[in-house]
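Re-running ISNCY family transposase to confirm reproducibility after the cluster update. Everything else is unchanged from the original entry.
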Amino acid sequence: MQRWKTEFGERLQTDASVHYWIKEEKWYLHGFIDDVTGKILALYFDTEETLMGYYNITKKVLLNYGIPKEILKDKRTYFEVQKKRSQIYILTP
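Result of re-run:
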């Protein structure tokens, strides 16, 4: 269970939302929001949910507000390194 936060910047939430924002085109709105105040800290539109979209909003947050104590994210793989399993081949004479 997560402890309640009481101060601005203690915990930020990030996610992207897909909608038909412009005519019949699908666009993704990446965003950061402060968990305590609900203040929107950064937004970025892109045609896909991408790591570059998250880089863009993260840069805006860091430059404008500094380093947050905690960031909540969804379970997308954009945020985690996926290590490939190496195969070991044993050569015998």
